[in-house]
Amino acid sequence: MYVLVSALAIVNIVVPTAIIPKMLLAVLFDLREITLAGCLVQMFVTHFFSSVESTILLVMALDRYVAICHPLRYVEIVNSALFVKLLVFTLVRSGSIMLTLVGLVAPLRFCGSNVISHCYCDHMALVSLACSSTDKNSAMGVAVIVCFVGIDISLIFFSYVNILYVVLRAAAGEDRWKAFHTCGTHLMVMMSFYLVGSVTFLSHNLNLPIPVDVNTCLGLLYIIFPASVNPVIYGVRTKEIRHAILKIFKVQANKVFVVQVSSVRK
To answer: How many of the other CB atoms lie within 10 Å of CB of 189?
Structure first.
């Protein structure tokens, strides 16, 4: 589990880093230009690591399912060999799908406006500027939603339903409320991540009348919201991680105190 939490933390750092610096340059210094190649790279990094985050959330849900519903077989099922297989699966699935997604954008002709109505290079925001056929791009956008939302969220929901069933049947009183609160919080954060991502991906395909500002806000929410709440949900609220963080702060505080006392004595 701690390996998965670490991987999730890395992803939550990489994805905002891919868009925030460029966005700040545009807001503060009006540096709004980006090359097509740079736009495609930003698009790939953003969507690739977002899809990796989806897989990590799925694996975390399945890990809890095995730990709670099949505790005696946990060590047998969850081992280093399984993690290697999951790593290869994650890289192959996310890499192949997102390379195809970006690869279908590269040959498009942009003969009209070159202004993206977004604060970063979102897939459909760029595709909507093309003056050539975008049927393949739209179909690929739907395929991404089916693969990462349809499949992942279904398995995550299945895992949490079974976890709640087992815990609520065995626990009583306050323990039931803690289990329901924890699973409910995780599901709400995941649902917001998948729901907002689905809307931003499908808004062009379904011709949804979403204002540009709202769509831009949803795109930012899709990137920033998980990176903001995941450290709290999966980090600070975990007792062992919380104690380790407090221990680090106590050690640093003691070091500062010792340095200050030493300097006074001199």
So the answer is: 18
Show the CA angle centred on residue 27, arms to residues 38 and 29, nearest 5°: 85
User: Are 56 and 87 spatial neighbours (Cβ–Cβ below 8 Å)?
Assistant: no
Q: Which helix H or strand E contains 83, and what residues bound it? A: helix 80-105
Which residues fall within 8 angstroms of residue 50, CB to CB, at 6 or more apart? 15, 197, 222, 223
Q: What is the mean pLDDT of residues 252-263?
A: 56
Euclidean distance between CA atoms 137 and 191, whole angstroms: 25
Average per-residue pLDDT in the chain? 82
Which pTM was predicted?
A: 0.85
Model confidence at 237, pLDDT cuts 50, 70, 90, reads low
Q: Token pair for residue 28?
A: 């503060």
Which residues, 6 or more positions from 68, have their beta carbon under 8 angstroms from its beta carbon? 163, 166, 167
Is 54:148 a contact under the CB 8 Å cutoff? Answer: yes
What pLDDT is attached to residue 99?
94
Say how far residue 17 (Cα) sits from the centre of its chain: 13
CA-to-CA dists, residue 145 to 52, 115, 224, 266, angstroms? 14, 26, 19, 65
Burial class (CB in 10 A: 0-12, 13-18, 19+), 181: exposed
Q: How many residues does the chain have?
A: 266
